[in-house]
Specification:
The complex is a heterodimer of chains A (376) and B (149). Chain A is mainly alpha-helical and 376 residues long. Chain A is 72% helix and 0% strand. Chain A has one domain (84-190, 206-373). Classes of the chains: A mainly alpha (376), B mainly alpha (149).
Amino acid sequence: MELLFQFLSNTGYYLADYRNVIMIVVGCLFLYLGTAKHYEPLLLIPIGFGILVGNVPFFKGFGLGIYENNSVLHYLYFGVVTGLYPSIVFLGLGAMTDFSSLLARPVLMLLGAAAQMGIFFTLIGALAFGFLPKEAGSIAIIGGADGPTSIFLTAKLAPHLIGPIAIAAYSYMALIPVIQPPIMRLLTSRKERLIRMTELREVPKKERIIFPAVGVLLCCFLAPASIPLLGTFFFGNFLKESGVADRLAQTARTAIIDTATIFLGLTVGASTQGDVFLTPKSVGIFLLGAVAFSIATASGIIFAKIMNLFLKEKINPLLGAAGVSAVPGSAREVHLVGQSEDPENYLLMHAMACNSSGVIGSAICAGILWSFLVGL
Amino acid sequence: MYGLQAIAAHNGWAMALAGALIVFSGLVILSFVISQLHKILMFFEKKPGDVQQDMEKPKVAPFENKAGFLLPKTFPQNINEIARLYKPLAETLGETFYLSELYEMSRKNDFPHPHITLTALRESKILVSDGNGVFTWNLPAEHDDIENV
């Protein structure tokens, strides 16, 4: 009988506290949003399931939890805290990305730069809220709307915040269809939303091959701290565009990125143990994350409107919202909002140009923030 | 520490401003470089040998022929479009003309394969014989609407 009681006292049912229950509900919500609503299922499902796994209460000292040495989850989490998984994800992203539309209309790259302003506004906001500089930098990067970049920078600056920052970043990425359209409509007139973009020129293969080499040199010379992200990103793109390493490019954009995404999502989810995750800081991070994401969207749109004051050939300011690096969610949303006004207005390819420049921009920002804050 | 005091104490304003400037200038430079990429490529693709050959080649205007009829770079395959190109030639010869006159004129004006083309125009009843060796141009009105080549 005593043995039975001892066993029961070690079960999750006995050890559970309300924080685990709350997080399990959050995990179920993620699974629901990913499965039933199709909101970023490739991200929300691994994270959601990771939250369930990470919040099963267990007897401390058994080497089970993600924060306990020698546990399996701890070994898998190694890829997160070292920035390994984000780097691998960027390799796959590069092998998937087609820069043709950006090369055809390089001016759209400026919208990717403008949308990064959300990061720097949030940096100031987080400092004002009382966060330490390294924490503020990690929170600010949520404005880039790039999950792997957020995780990478947080792992370097404030590893104790990886859980809330990753969850906030991915949540807002999944909620793009809810967050971005009202901001787009608020900041643009109907006439502006109706602007049609001219057809893009066909980009020769040589240009597409040279771009990753030029891109990695220019960006990484400027912000060497972004090498782990942009180095692999442009390398993946070179594999794709060279046309002679198709097998490698194919592996990078399928098996490798999928494996990294699975482990990244699962371990980030599992890192949200209720007792570690549910703190007042997490609430602040979620609030600031929403602000960061909204400012990033708005600054892209406003910058597009400013550009229109000087450009002969006007650009549709909705494209500014795609300057955040949530690929391809924000580009898709820009296209849908444009089509809701004029069903024959095809903005997708132009929006993808802004999106891909947003990926580069947010990785540079991560490098810059890391350089600024690492010594503090 | 909170608010403006915290921002100032942690050098927040300078970090935000410098960060924004760096990322902006980086992407502006990248954008400028890629906007010039096709020009750089064009420059390198024109090999020194090509330049020498260009200098040695006699200067000819391949597309504009002697009588001032403008020929497209690629001669059309469609008979109606070919007829539209031939029509100004035929008009200079008057309402009726000998086939040899039209042949000679098209040859002088660098029309490709005039013999085969005139045969095709006859077969498609665009060049119509009146039985005495004289021909008339018979391009129906709708063929005049063919898009300019």
